[in-house]
Amino acid sequence: MFSPILRHSLQPRFVAPSTRRNLWSFGSKKSDVPALYKPRQESWVNPTMILIGIMPFFTFALGTWQLKRLKWKVDLIDELEEKLQLQPLSLPPKIKYARASSPYLPLLSHIPCSLSVIPEFVYRKVALKGKWDHAHTMLLMPRVREGVHGAHVVTPLVRENGSTVLVDRGFVSKDFALANNFHREEGEVEILGMLRTSQPRNSFTPDNNPEEGTWYWNDVQAMADYVGGEQAGVQPVFVEQIFGQRAYSVCFSGALTGCLL
Known about the structure:
Number of domains: 2
Family: Belongs to the SURF1 family.
Order of helices and strands: HHHEEEEEHEHE
Distance between the termini: 131 Å
Oligomer: single chain
Shape: elongated
Structural class: alpha+beta
Number of helices: 5
Largest sheet: 5 strands, mixed, barrel
Helix content: 25-40%
Strand content: 15-25%
Membrane topology: Multi-pass membrane protein
Function: Probably involved in the biogenesis of the COX complex.
InterPro entries: Surf1/Shy1, Surf1/Surf4
Organism: Asterophora parasitica
């Protein structure tokens, strides 16, 4: 019925097991392409994404710090203006080394009767009378005012029947400061000043060198000790002299210019 050729083609053929395995594994055989040429899957965590993630927190922290600093400046200006409207204080002949918790302090709260409460009277005007101790004048430098390099002249004021205090007499240009050529008043003087404390020192400010007469920042206690300390009747009280109600003026001569109200 069928031709021999057709019958031969319809007969089942035996396929060797090894051949069948090769046929089944053909589709699942791994690629021989080297791993170097395969596409690399990068993680989404990278320096750029980390930076983008922390930027909002950094911006928020910076903004908070700026607001706090602005509030501090506004409060400081308000405090300064309020205290400068008050009448000048008269310092007692000798400010005692009493504790701030002393029961007598509330009775004398209108004057700085203890060194421990001096910070509470910062920016308060004080009236002083005495004689300058020019032999112990100190120069706070370098300082710059309106582009002019110079120094602040700090001279002890010896009060009659009272302790000696330190007074910042104002600014003088560098040439006159180094030549020790600036105005020196003799005899008894009356001045108006403003109570201050030691300035905060940053990490870039060098150490003071009293032996060489080099002062970079007003360390009130060290300056008082340099002049003679408690044994010589010198107390760590620092006053910035006020020169009327006029603005600062740059000093190119030996005259001193001082604090602005």
